[in-house]
Amino acid sequence: DVTEIEEKEAQAKQEEQIMKEQELSNLLHEKRYLKALGLAISLDRPHTVLMVVKAILKETDGRKHLEENIVRLRKDQKEAVLAFLVTWNTNSRNCHEAQAVIETLLKHEAPDSLLQYSGIKSAVESLLPYT
């Protein structure tokens, strides 16, 4: 009977998720945005990533801090953020944050580098009508 083992695994997974949620909350409270961005991306939480971006932009010199944080993300994390911001850009409440991230990516990534991102073609096609 593997039911007990499966229940323990599910419970362990749920506990790990709760721990990550708490860690994310703590990182945001401590204004450790780079780690918060990384954790929100790893949890695949587009809304949370958006909240982190909004929090960064509310800071003094928010654009500068956003650039510093986005530039330091790994390529796979930038790809995830790009996928998230396609959705953000379609909503007028979130389009400014999406545009700020797009601006940062376009400023700091070479065109050849951007072309290597997975899903870049569909992202650009989706961004153009709203940008």
What does this structure look like?
The chain is an all-alpha fold. It has one domain. Helices cover 78% and strands 0% of the residues. The chain has eight helices and no strands. It has helices spanning 3-29, 33-42, 46-58, 62-71, 75-89, 95-108, 111-115, 120-127. One of its GO terms (cellular component) is small-subunit processome.
The helix content is: over 70%
Shape: globular
- CA radius of gyration is 17 Å
Mean pLDDT: 91
Q: Which band does the percent of strand residues land in?
A: under 5%
How is the biggest beta sheet arranged?
Answer: none
DSSP summary, beta strand count: 0
Report the order of strands and helices.
HHHHHHHH
| Number of individual domains | 1
Helical element count? 8
* Gap from first CA to last CA: 56 Å
Structural category is mainly alpha
pLDDT < 50 runs, ≥5 residues: none
List keywords for this structure.
131 residues; mainly alpha; 8 helices; 78% helix
Short description:
Helices cover 78% and strands 0% of the residues.
Protein topology:
Blueprint: H1 3-29, H2 33-42, H3 46-58, H4 62-71, H5 75-89, H6 95-108, H7 111-115, H8 120-127
